Amino acid sequence: MSRMNAMFKKLYKLVLVVSLAIFLFIVFDEIHNLDNNSKRYLSEHYISEGVQETGAINIVTSVLYDYRAFDTLGEATVLLTAAAILSFLVPLGKDKMLGTTFTMIVSQTTKFFIPFLAVLGAYLILFGHLAPGGGFVGGVVMAVIPILLTITYRVEFSEYKFKPAKKKLAEDIGAIGFILLGLVGVVTGSNFLANGQANFGPGNTGELISAGLIPFLNLMIGIKVGAGLAIIFNSLIKEK
Amino acid sequence: MMDIIFNMLMIFLVITAFFMVFTKDISTAVIALPIYGAILVVIFVILQAPGPAIAEAVIAAGLTTVFFVITINKTEY
């Protein structure tokens, strides 16, 4: 009986996962093969008109920063709140992390890695409207730099290079700049965070400075995500 | 040829994900996470998104694994 019970327990998890997978497969198959096209008019509109309306080649970016920019603002506010609460709650102290001391190879390799990470993060942020990527991914890559410094050297060195006050300032600039850029749409006589519908043109599609507000919004989100993630990591590693 | 490689990689992705969920040792699961990320990098390259591929390599191999290792270290597992 107990053997049956053990076998049932083993099968139980497997059946749960497989049934969830089958359910999701059926749901996505059903969505993909909808016969009635009137239910998909929004995605049809995004795909066929998105490039002309917003000027961004990357349709995901055009949905994220133009059609649904208000949701992105909420998403960014969640991250700001998390970073602020964490840096407020976690006490200041020494890190009690790993007892290991790294060899010279690790510290030298870290030193050579950091410029590549900076270039990659800047590329992902600035070309967010032309190629896959965007502010969130680029910000995370930028945040890897202080995290690498924290892991390889100590948290003191990382906070000596990137001062916490400056990181907080950068995050505030990102959060406030996003809202101020949204107000540009109001000033030009349209809605909040309007880009394609506003009166300034989207520019030549395919150039670096085009698509209206989207590159600047990407830059703000990138600064904000990078600074916020670095603050969160450095706060959590100092926790006892 | 490319389709076969792509489908094989997808199947390996599912196998790695199942391995991560059902393995007993928690550190084995953590080390299986970068393998999942590496397969995802190749899939991104096949889908013609080289930028996110490099970012995924950085994030999966560097950030996520480090987060989990430090968490296990701090909770004294």
Outline type of chain A: globular
Mean pLDDT reading of chain A: 80
Unreliable stretches covering 5 or more consecutive residues of chain B: none
The counted number of beta strands of chain A is 0
Q: How many helices of chain A does DSSP assign?
A: 9
* Helix and strand sequence of chain B: HHH
The share of residues in helices of chain B is over 70%
Describe this structure in words.
- Chain A has 240 residues and is mostly helical.
- Chain A has one domain (34-237).
- Chain A has nine helices and no strands.
- The radius of gyration of chain A is 23 Å and the shape is globular.
- Chain B has 77 residues and is mainly α.
- Chain B has one domain (2-74).
- Chain B has three helices and no strands.
- Chain B has helices at residues 2-22, 26-46, 50-74.
- In chain B, helix 1 (2-22) packs antiparallel against helix 2 and helix 2 (26-46) runs antiparallel to helix 3.
- The longest helix of chain B has 25 residues, at 50-74.
- The model of chain B has no long low-confidence stretch (mean pLDDT 85).
- At the A-B interface, helix 1, helix 5 and helix 6 of A face helix 1 and helix 3 of B.
Topology readout:
The complex is a heterodimer of chains A (240) and B (77).
Chain A: H1 2-32, H2 41-54, H3 59-67, H4 69-89, H5 104-126, H6 135-152, H7 155-161, H8 164-187, H9 214-237
Chain B: H1 2-22, H2 26-46, H3 50-74
What's this, in brief?
Chain A: The chain crosses the membrane at residues 73-92, 112-130, 136-153, 173-193, 213-237. Chain A: Residues 105-229 form the Na+/H+ antiporter MnhB subunit-related protein domain. The complex is a heterodimer of chains A (240) and B (77). Chain A has nine helices and no strands.
